[in-house]
Amino acid sequence: MITSETARKPRGAYAKTAGRRREILEAGMDVFATNGFRSGSIREIAEVVGMSQAGLLHHFSNKNELLAGVLELRDDRATEYVDTSAPASIETIRGFVRLIDYNAHQVPGLVELHCVLSAEATSPEHPAHDYFVRRYDWVLSFLTAAFETMRADGQLAAGIDPASAARGMIAMSDGLQVQWLLNRDALDMAEEMRNYLRPLLTVEL
């Protein structure tokens, strides 16, 4: 007989499993950010969370599946600052700048993760290659749409091409992250991005 008490047990078990998966993903994020995907091992991630490799593989069947989960977690965090469900606009650009600032001050491991994995993933054989190709295409499209809206609203300076502005913003972001990782005291990534964007706009960020 299923009672209300027994009916609640799966929920508790699910919550415990979800919490454990989250711990594994957080550990995977740190390990992949430090060592890259190729050098980061399941064994090392399992040790971080105090599990056996077999126990970890109960939650993620292989390293590629774990990587997919890590990248999804990273993207979920980004949506807290950039509302991808809203129409692209100047708020999109402001959100990206806030995200850059948040990453630098609160989760620097995400900056490392992006730089290490995106460099590795330039190889077509890398398991995250297709992910990064799709991600860059999507980010370019989303930022271009934001700059197009800004042009229509009179918020983009005369002569600025939305697609070029979007590509420049992506290139600026990637370059700043590498420079910042080499010397974290040398620059403020968010402020440098604002400095890049100000001449392109007719309004304040």
Keywords:
205 residues, mainly alpha, Arc Repressor Mutant, subunit A, Tetracycline Repressor, domain 2, elongated, disordered N terminus
How many distinct helices? 9
Q: Topology as H/E string? A: HHHHHHHHH
**What is the domain total for the residues?**
2
- Any idea of the CATH class of the largest domain? Mainly Alpha
Helix content: over 70%
CATH architecture of the largest domain: Orthogonal Bundle
Strand tally, please?
Answer: 0
N-end to C-end Cα span: 61 Å
Are there runs of 5+ residues with pLDDT below 50, and where? 1-10
What does the average pLDDT come to? 90
Structural class of the helix and strand makeup?
Answer: mainly alpha
> Roughly what fraction of the amino acids lie in strands?
under 5%
Major sheet characteristics:
none
If you consult CATH, what is the topology of the largest domain? Answer: Tetracycline Repressor, domain 2
Alpha carbon gyration radius: 20 Å
Q: Give the overall shape, derived from the CA principal axes.
A: elongated
